[in-house]
Amino acid sequence: MLKPHRHHPLWFAFIVHRLSGVCLALFLPAHFYVLGLALNNGESLDRFLHWTEHPLLRWVEFGLVFCLAVHMFGGVRLLALEFMPWSPKQKTFAALAAALSLLVACLFLLRAT
Amino acid sequence: MARRLGLHQEVLQVNVWRGNASGGKHCHYEVPSLESQTILDVVTWIQRNLDPKLSYRFACRVGMCGTCAMMVNGKPRWTCRTHVRKVLDNNTLTIEPLRNLPVIKDLACDMSEFFDKWDRAQGRFHPSKTRSDDVVRIPPTSVHRTQVDAAIECINCAICYAACDVVQWNPDYLGPAALNRAWTLVNDVRDNNQTVRLRAVSSDAGCHNCHSHQSCTTYCPNEINPTASIAGLKRATAKATLSGKI
Ligand code: SF4
Ligand code: SF4
Ligand code: FES
Question: Pick from B87, B109, B131: which residue ends a domain?
Answer without folding.
Answer: B109
